[in-house]
Design brief:
Blueprint (H helix, E strand, L loop, with lengths): L1 E3 L6 E5 L4 E5 L6 E6 L5 E5 L3 E6 L4 E7 L4 E7 L3 E6 L4 E5 L8 E2 L2
Antiparallel strand pairs: 1-2, 2-3, 4-5, 5-6, 6-7, 8-9, 9-10, 10-11
Length: 107
């Protein structure tokens, strides 16, 4: 799989083995960061201060969280954990316990 977000509000997924493309829409602002969790889900962050969790096999949005600032970077860690950095220089630690629930803040 390959992921990209050009200068629009869509995340594009390419399955290179099948030569197919899926567009993940639903954003209200440009996407600034992407990460793949250890469980294989895609996380996107955009200028609308949301982070969204996607099922890459179906292209379905599994959930989202509204942050109190724009997330500018994402790092996926082992054990389905995620670190997000925001425009104010803060780091937010998450554990994705259930794809249908909002991530749980660790610190």
């Amino acid at each position: 799989m390959a992921f990209a977000s050009p200068n629009d509000y869509v995340v594009r997924l390419w399955d290179l083995s099948r030569a197919t493309q899926v567009d993940l829409a639903g954003r209200e602002a440009g996407i600034v960061a992407l990460a793949v969790t250890s469980a294989g889900a895609l996380v996107s962050a955009s200028r609308d201060s949301t982070m969204r969790l996607w099922d890459v096999s179906s292209g379905r949005e599994l959930g989202y969280i509204l942050m109190d600032g724009i997330v500018t970077c994402l790092v996926a860690l082992p054990n389905n954990r995620l670190v997000a950095g925001d425009v104010d220089g803060r780091l937010h630690w998450f554990e994705i316990v259930d794809a249908m629930q909002k991530p749980t803040v660790l610190h």
